[in-house]
Amino acid sequence: MATDKQTEANRQNAQKSTGPRTAEGKARSSMNHLTTGIDAKSAIIPGEDPAQLQALADRIGAELKPATEAERHQVDIIIHCDWKARRYVRCEAEIWRSTMERPLGRKEPNPVGYGYSLCPIVFSRLDRRVEVNERLSNHARHELERLQSNRFAAEAAEPAPQPVETEAPAEELGSNLQSAPEPAATGSPAPNPIPAAPKFGPESASDPRGTPDEAPPRSA
């Protein structure tokens, strides 16, 4: 049977999980608290109540919360060991009643010692069965804690889902773009102006000197 310290440790381990974050982790989490594989009718012997075994399986399953097949297997072992521990207690009581029946009927002064003297080997074998059952239960609990710790660590290591960025409409994207300034036109430099040629005509007659090319008129 589980001690108070083991029960509290299992409860604290169950609270360490922050829950799955990815789709795969959530799919595994949906299998939490798997139904026990124990058949309450086939696991009992005459004198035992299958409803009590089913109630025990429900309580332990709700406490330990197996989420995988491996975890459920360890929980089933714990349930079996707990049920057998109760059975061994009744078995020991029945052995005592059987061995003490005769001295009690005779009203002998030491019925307990007389009863034990009748079958010491039987009591020793029963004690060994109790010890083996307890070791098996403790081993299953340690293995369950290991499996759950690994699962909690794997769930905590799953990256948080990142928000999906939606693309803005093309019109909105176009409106945010700034038009680049047009580059200045780079043409060839303007040619130097050519000085105007002197005009020959009536305008130049007013100059008494005339032009260098004109000769003075000859007298008749």
Brief overview, please?
With 220 residues, the protein is mostly helical. The protein contains seven helices and no strands.
Low-confidence stretches: 27-33
- Let me know the number of strands: 0
Taken together, the total number of domains comes to 1
Helix content: 55-70%
Mean pLDDT value = 76
Can you offer a commentary on this structure?
With 220 residues, the chain is mainly alpha-helical. The protein has one domain. The chain is 56% helix and 0% strand. α4 runs antiparallel to α6. It is rod-shaped, with a radius of gyration of 53 Å. It starts with a helix and ends in a 44-residue tail after the last helix. About 3% of the residues have low confidence.
Which key terms come to mind for this protein?
220 residues, mainly alpha, 7 helices, 56% helix
